[in-house]
Amino acid sequence: MEITCYRDPETARELRFLPAATYNLAHALLSRSASGCLFVPIRAMQYLAILDAEEFVFLDGPRKCWIDIAWRNFKPQDRTALDDAVAYEAVYYQASAAGLMARLQAELPRALNALAAKGRFDGPARVLKFPAPERR
After folding, report:
1. How many other C-beta atoms can be found within 10 angstroms of the C-beta atom of residue 134?
2. Quick count: other Cβ atoms within 10 Å of Cβ 11?
3. Which of 1, 59, 67, 83 has an alpha carbon 20 to 30 Å from 37's alpha carbon atom?
4. Would 134 be classed as within a structural domain?
5. Is residue 89 exposed (0-12), middle (13-18) or buried (19+ Cβ within 10 Å)?
6. Residue range 9-27: mean pLDDT, rounded
């Protein structure tokens, strides 16, 4: 699938933190994607999240290909443990977008979990056999 997205001029930007479980699940699902991006429908809000290695963007149903919010500049290297929250910048392209943040941070994990529950691994499984080490 290919979608062309557009951005209005930036209206605001702020530093935020994404819970580790959400960040880790998003990247685990993203690693399974052959295309390098992941489309996550957030049905409760009628939004579509498009995730790639650089950013997460959110598109509203009525505005279709116009980005309302982008989460970018993730800093996973700044955390000291895998269960620490990950800092990022939220970039707003609509004046009303800042009001959506709390709901997006609640609904995105639900949508990711629903997507993970549907996921299946296609293709044949292989067992790799390694030679046993020699006994001395």
Report:
1. 5
2. 13
3. 83
4. no
5. middle
6. 94
Instruction: Average the pLDDT over 86-115 and give the result.
Output: 91
In a domain, 32, yes or no: yes
pLDDT of 5 strictly over 70: yes
In-domain check, residue 124: no
Name the token pair of 74.
């993730």
For the entire predicted model, the pTM comes to 0.82
The amino acid at residue 104 is: L
For 16, list phi and psi in degrees, rounded to 5. Answer: -135, 175
pLDDT band at 118 (very low <50, low <70, confident <90, very high): confident
- Is position 38 within any domain? yes
In total, how many domains does the chain have?
1
> Are 64 and 6 contacting, i.e. CB atoms less than 8 angstroms apart?
no
Q: Domain range spanning residue 32?
A: 6-117
The two three-digit tokens of residue 44, written as one number: 């409760």
